[in-house]
Every structure is written in C-alpha cells, then in structure tokens.
TrEMBL record:
The lineage of its organism: Bacteria, Pseudomonadati, Pseudomonadota, Betaproteobacteria, Burkholderiales. One of its GO terms (biological process) is alkanesulfonate transmembrane transport. It comes from Caballeronia sordidicola (Burkholderia sordidicola). Residues 1-28 form the signal peptide. Pfam families: OpuAC (PF04069). Belongs to the bacterial solute-binding protein SsuA/TauA family. Residues 33-257 form the Solute-binding protein family 3/N-terminal domain. This is Periplasmic component of taurine ABC transporter. It is found in: Periplasm. PANTHER family: ALIPHATIC SULFONATES-BINDING PROTEIN-RELATED (PTHR30024), TAURINE-BINDING PERIPLASMIC PROTEIN (PTHR30024:SF47).
Length: 341
C-alpha cells in the first residue's frame, strides 16, 4: 500500500514544483474569468452552480471543471490550471504541507454519513476484523482514504493486513459491479450505487466521533485571491446563502424538490438518494465560518492533526509548524458584512 501512497506523494510534489513559475500577473485584475474545480460531493452549492448564481453575483465568467478526487483538484491548482477548487481535508492537508500556495476560504461541509465504508453482500464481512485479507477500494489521498486508515487504526487492524486498492469513484462503482472488490469507502454517486447491494460498516460521522474529523472546503490559489478578492467575497456570499436555504428548508426536500434535482444534475447522483445523504452532513452558515470552530482556528488545527496522521502513515515527510497561514476568514467576513449580518 505504501508504495502507492509514496508514488502519489511524489506526483503531487512534482506538480507542486510547477507552482513557482506562476506569477500573480497571471491573474490580472481586469481578467474576470476563473476556472473552478468541483467534485461530485452532495452539497447545496451545486444548486447555485446549476442556476448560474455564482456568475450573476460575481460578474465573472466561470469555467467549471469536474474532477473525480480532491487530489486531482489540488494537482490542477498546483499547476495553475484551476484557481478555485473544492477539496477534502486530507488532500488539502497534504498539499499545503508540501508548500502549495493555497488557502481555505470557505468550509463547505463537515462530513458525516455522506461518506461511508460499504461491504458487499455475500462478502462474509460482518464486523471490522473481517476486513483482514479482503480487498477494499478507496481513492488515495482523499478524505475517505484518511477515514479508512483512521478507522482501521481505531479497530486495531494493521493497514498492511488489508488489501487497499487505489480506485477513483467511477472505477469503484465498476469494480463493485464486476465483483472485483469486497468493500469500498467512498462518496456519492458511487456510494449510492454500491450500497444497493451492500451494507454500511461505518461512516465518517462515526470516524469523527473517534477523533478523526474530515471536512470539505473551497480553496483558492493565493495569487488569485490577492488579485481577485471580489470574486471570493461574492462566491462566499452565494455559498453561504445556499447553505442557509438548506438549513432552513432542507429537512422537507424530497427527490422531487427542484433543489435536489439541481444537485443531482451537477453531481450525477440519483435524486432518490440525496435527501438522506444531505441530512448526514453539516453545512456551516456564512456567519459561522469565522468562528473558532472553523476558519477562526478549528480548521487550521484539523489540518495540523490530519498532517500529523499523514506523516505517521508515511504519506508526507514533515508537518508545518503552523497551518494558520493556509486558512483565511477575510472573505467570509467581508461577505457576511455585505449581507448585513
């Protein structure tokens, strides 16, 4: 397993070296075009993406690029191809630890049951210890990879006693259908597909209780943030409004609700699965973002703790003395002030 982990780390390190060649001038103040990397995770901002609210609020032309994993998003941001991206805490921690010029400006979600370890029906896995010797698929350098390793540690199962396969979510769904794997730790839409013929062994909500929380975040390249703070303020305001809409009425949403249809269209998920998945995740409001729990200190601590775990797992060589400079509450504070809150 570690060969693959180290290989992935080397790739990110190589890509990160490209960053130095990109000057802030690449994002001139009069260039109102931005490339935003997104994933298929189930969360309210997909509604704004589907309806063009980000473009309307910011006045920018947005090129939306879909990625299968957070590691892919981080690599694209390192190269400069993507200026704003959606990623999970594990690939983010690995990226900033290696010196990538990124900063978290909005916490999209505190992950709960929307990410889960599912075991195949007929795999004879009824308890954690049954995972020993089995094939478990997970996207490497992802929040689910981190959660899987944390769960194995919690259960006292050495990771080298489980065959852990590095597969992207679409590959997981295909491998599951072929019967090539016994279990997988993943998110939707792959999660919704495999759970139909499997059962959940644990979720990231439980792993959080065991002391290894994960989150999803919107991050920006620092050079872009310096040149285009107006975009990040508008982006934060729109994302916060979507989270507030869900907090207010989301419990009533069904598969037939227009908002759910928008999320399903952008994520590629089955609308029937989404209401339950949404309820398993916490989506922080705009006026909660700068709190000590989140951008006011908690996220920096979570990144530090995640990086320490990654170092223990030999996925990064060292950790930063302070992760505070990789997090900013400036844009959400401006967005909140502009909203009259």
């Amino acid at each position: 397993m570690f060969k693959h982990l180290i290989r992935g780390a080397a790739l990110l390190a190589l890509v990160s070296s490209l960053t130095a060649s990109f000057a802030s001038s690449a994002f001139a103040a009069d260039n109102k075009t931005v490339t935003v990397g997104y994933q298929t995770d189930i969360e309210p901002s997909k509604i704004a993406q589907a309806s063009g609210l980000y473009e309307k609020a910011s006045g920018y032309k947005i090129n939306w690029r879909k990625f299968n994993t957070g590691a892919d998003v981080i690599a694209a941001m390192a190269s400069g191809d993507v200026q704003v991206g959606f990623t999970g805490s594990s690939p983010l921690a690995a990226g900033v630890t290696r010196g990538l010029p990124l900063e978290t400006f909005f916490v999209a979600a505190e992950i709960g049951t929307a990410e889960a370890l599912v075991v195949r029906n007929g795999s004879n896995i009824t308890k954690p210890q049954d995972l020993i010797g089995k094939k478990v698929a997970v996207p490497f350098v992802s929040t689910t990879h981190y959660s899987l390793l944390a769960a194995l540690k919690h259960w006292g199962i050495p990771a080298n006693q489980v065959t852990i396969l590095n597969l992207a979510p679409p590959e997981i769904a295909a491998a599951w259908q072929r019967g090539d794997i016994d279990a997988a730790y993943v998110w939707d839409p792959a999660l919704g597909k495999i759970v139909k013929t499997g059962k959940v062994l644990t979720t990231s909500a439980e792993v959080r209780k065991w002391g290894s929380p994960t989150f999803l975040a919107w991050v920006a390249r620092k050079d872009f943030a310096q040149a285009h703070p107006d975009f990040l303020v508008a982006f934060s305001r729109v994302t916060g409004a979507q989270n507030a809409e869900y907090r207010k009425d989301g419990a009533k949403w069904t598969a037939a609700t227009p908002q759910v249809a928008d999320i399903a269209r952008i994520s590629g998920s089955d609308a029937a699965d989404l209401p339950a998945l949404l309820q398993g995740t916490t989506f922080p409001l705009l006026d909660e973002q700068a709190s000590p729990r989140l951008l006011g200190g908690g996220i920096a601590k979570a990144l530090a703790d995640t990086s320490a775990f990654l170092k223990e797992q030999k996925r990064v060589d060292d950790v930063l003395p302070d992760y505070g400079p990789t997090v900013t509450a400036s844009f959400v504070q401006q967005a909140s002030a502009g909203s009259g809150k």
